[in-house]
């Protein structure tokens, strides 16, 4: 399970100052340099492409007009004109994407989280968050990398997602996960101890076992519960395996902590 110590005394931009009532600031996260630079570079490349295409089209059309007349010049200039407008459209979209990324920011406070996305600032108290979904995807290939995505769900049903476009997004996910565990684990454990089933999406934990996608397995029949390559899997002693992608399991850290406290279950992460 993720754990992280809060960074020291972050400087929160004044745009978030109205949320100081949620307590002292804990951390602040900005877009990564790559997320900011790449869209701008693509927008600049499109602008250059549009300029070169326009110059070529005008020169070619002028030459054709002087030799063959307007009909040939018009036909010859259609392809460069189409390419020019495609470059302009792509450059506009890349520029808009860059503008939105530059405004992206997340501020954590003792009492909640404030974030700016698509020009809008929202603030949610920790107690108003019902679930955290964690998706970690490892991509192979010539440039292998690991993608992270953390999705928060509010009591209103509204969701907000944070991914690798933010600097140190794994630290952000760990800090949010700590708040979710601190608030959700005690009531979940209390309900389970009282004999009530507790649900984590398609996973139900009961006093006598666990159910994954409507397939129940008793605690004594489980060999190990593992979290590997983005999947949570329940390995039964008879060789059968039940599993789910961790990205679809709400409050995964709460579930893992619950399983870790059940003596009949061996947990591997």
Would you kindly provide a written description of the structure presented here, covering whatever features stand out?
The chain has 269 residues and is of the alpha+beta class. The protein is elongated, with a radius of gyration of 26 Å. Strands 1-2-3-4 form a four-stranded antiparallel sheet. The protein has helices at 33-68, 70-103, 169-193, 252-260; strands spanning 25-29, 105-109, 112-117, 120-125, 129-139, 145-154, 159-163, 198-200, 203-206, 209-212, 215-218, 222-228, 231-236, 241-245, 267-268. Helix 1 (33-68) packs antiparallel against helix 2 and helix 3 (169-193) packs across helix 4 (252-260).
First-last Cα distance: 8 Å
CATH architecture of the largest domain: Roll
Mean pLDDT: 82
Largest sheet: 4 strands, antiparallel
Number of strands: 15
Give the SSE order as H and E letters: EHHEEEEEEHEEEEEEEHE
Strand order of the largest sheet: 1-2-3-4
Low-confidence runs: none
Core attributes:
four-stranded antiparallel sheet, PH-domain like, 269 residues, alpha+beta
Summary of the model, kept short:
This protein folds into 3 domains: 70 residues; 79 residues, PH-domain like (Roll), CATH 2.30.29; 72 residues, Pleckstrin-homology domain (PH domain)/Phosphotyrosine-binding domain (PTB) (PH-domain like, Roll), CATH 2.30.29.30. It has 4 helices and 15 strands.
Record the SSE blueprint.
Blueprint: E1 25-29, H1 33-68, H2 70-103, E2 105-109, E3 112-117, E4 120-125, E5 129-139, E6 145-154, E7 159-163, H3 169-193, E8 198-200, E9 203-206, E10 209-212, E11 215-218, E12 222-228, E13 231-236, E14 241-245, H4 252-260, E15 267-268
Parallel strand pairs: 12-15
Antiparallel strand pairs: 1-2, 2-3, 3-4, 5-6, 6-7, 8-9, 9-10, 10-11, 12-13, 13-14
Helix pairs in contact: 1-2, 3-4
């Amino acid at each position: 399970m993720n754990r992280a110590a809060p960074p020291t005394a972050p400087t929160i931009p004044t745009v978030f100052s109205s949320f100081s009532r949620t307590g002292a600031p804990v951390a602040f996260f900005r877009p990564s340099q790559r997320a900011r630079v790449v869209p701008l570079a693509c927008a600049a490349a499109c602008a250059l492409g549009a300029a070169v295409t326009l110059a070529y089209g005008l020169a070619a059309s002028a030459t054709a007009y002087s030799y063959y007349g307007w009909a040939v010049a018009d036909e010859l200039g259609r392809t460069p004109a189409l390419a020019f407008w495609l470059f302009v459209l792509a450059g506009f979209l890349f520029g808009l994407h860059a503008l939105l990324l530059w405004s992206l920011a997340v501020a954590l406070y003792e009492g909640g989280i404030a974030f700016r996305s698509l020009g809008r600032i929202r603030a949610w108290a920790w107690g108003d968050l019902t679930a955290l979904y964690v998706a970690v995807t490892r991509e192979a290939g010539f440039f292998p990398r690991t993608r992270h995505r953390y999705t928060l769900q509010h009591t209103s049903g509204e969701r907000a997602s944070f991914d690798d476009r933010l600097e140190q997004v794994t630290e952000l996910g760990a800090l949010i996960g700590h708040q979710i565990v601190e608030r959700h684990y005690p009531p979940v454990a209390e309900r389970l101890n009282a004999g009530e089933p507790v649900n984590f999406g398609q996973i139900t934990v009961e006093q006598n076992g666990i159910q994954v996608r409507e397939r129940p397995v008793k605690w004594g029949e489980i060999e190990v519960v593992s979290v590997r390559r983005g999947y949570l899997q329940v390995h039964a002693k008879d060789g059968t395996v039940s599993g789910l992608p961790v990205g679809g399991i709400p409050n995964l850290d709460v579930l893992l902590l619950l399983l870790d406290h059940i003596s009949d279950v061996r947990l591997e992460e």
